[in-house]
Amino acid sequence: MATSKLVDDKDGDLCCSICLDLFKEPVMLECGHHFCKSCIDEVWNSAKTPACPECREECPAKKYTVNRLLSKLVEKARRVQQSEKAETRHQEQKDHSIHETQQCLEHNEVLKLFCQEDKSPMCVVCMVSTKHTGHSFLPLQEAVSLFQGKLKEASSLLELKVKYTIKVHNQQEQYISDLQNETLHMDQHITSQFAKLHQFLQDREKNLIQQLKEETAGIIKKMKENLRDIKNRSNAIQKGISNMQSAIQQEDPVNFLRGLRNVNKIYMNPPKEENLPKAVLGSCDKTREMYNDFISHNWNEWKSNMRPEPLTRSMQCTTYWQ
What are the tens digits of pLDDT across the range 140-184? Predict the structure, then answer.
């Protein structure tokens, strides 16, 4: 603000007394006065006896010194001046644009009403025209308040859905981690048990481990696909929230109401309940069954040296959303 004030004052310390504008390459004479380099050169070239235009002290040697500090201050003031001019132009353009959007294109009247059938702002002439016979109208600001309330309600519901999907997302990640840990434990168990057997058991051991890995890979693949679906659903809901928040923040009531037609109707009147993703559990039951059957029935002579792998994980999960 101080710089702007100096810029506006043509007699200020940042202005040349010859051209009455901001200094350009400011120089200081021996008497202490400042001028633009080009201005003082022009004055001295046309004068019989070079002198200071301010105090009239003669300068026969035409000596002056470049003032770099003053040059930096002038440059800063010039940038502030340009910024203020640009801001003024932007505000003028914005005011002009708002004025145009608030006028009826057909009747050049101020848009003060909202037609509930046509879902569009109208002027008072539109209301009495035959095109809108039998239509119901609301004051513009009342319509804005009405639809803002609906958008806020829909946004709140979507925020609850986001919280749910985040919870399910974290649950699914935990299930995947649990399954991977279980697989690692089961792998180690099978390996340690079959190490007690002789060579003819090694082929069976390798077959079971391969079966375990293939079964685990298939289950994890399905679980990760479900995880991607959860992420996609969460992103879609968040995008809907962003769109509604942008609409709510629209300052111009006409643009706000015109933009309503771009908002998906499902967000304006969302169902109270809908199917949402849920976490999927996985377990290597097939491999465990084959292994336990092998230990319990086919190799009774080795039962004293081997032990089945117990099923200890909980299979319970949430299957609905409230």
Answer: 899 999 999 999 999 999 999 999 999 999 999 999 999 999 888
Element (H, E) at 308: none
CATH code, 39: 3.30.40.10
Pinpoint the alpha helices (H) of the chain.
2-8, 37-46, 68-101, 124-128, 140-194, 202-248, 253-258, 265-268, 285-293
pLDDT at 245: 83
Backbone angles phi, psi at 55, to 5 degrees: -105, -5
Flag whether 145 is in a domain: no
Phi, psi for 154 (deg, rounded to 5): -65, -40
Helix axes 285-293, 202-248, angle to 10 degrees: 160
Residues 78 and 165 occupy one common structural domain = no
Spatial distance between the Cα atoms of 65 and 46, rounded to a whole number of angstroms: 20
The CA distance from 189 to 209, in Å, is 10
Query: Does 280 fall in a domain?
Result: yes
Say yes or no: 279 and 181 in one domain. Answer: yes
- 316, pLDDT greater than 50: no
More confident residue, 109 or 310: 109
197 inside domain: yes
pLDDT tens string 271-287:
555 667 787 787 878 88
Q: Which domain holds residue 26?
A: 2-99
80 closest CA partner among 88, 92, 69, 91: 88
Q: Count the alpha carbons within 13 Å of 263 in the hemisphere toward its beta carbon.
A: 28
Q: For residues 183 and 288, state if they share a domain.
A: yes
Domain boundary among 54, 80, 99: 99
- Of 122, 154, 157, 153, which is closest to residue 137 (Cα–Cα)? 122
What's the pLDDT tens digit per position in 232-252? 888 888 887 887 888 788 788
- Does residue 170 share a domain with residue 290? yes
Give the pLDDT mean for 286-303: 71
As a whole number of angstroms, the distance between CA 288 and CA 296 comes to 12
Count how many domains the chain has: 2
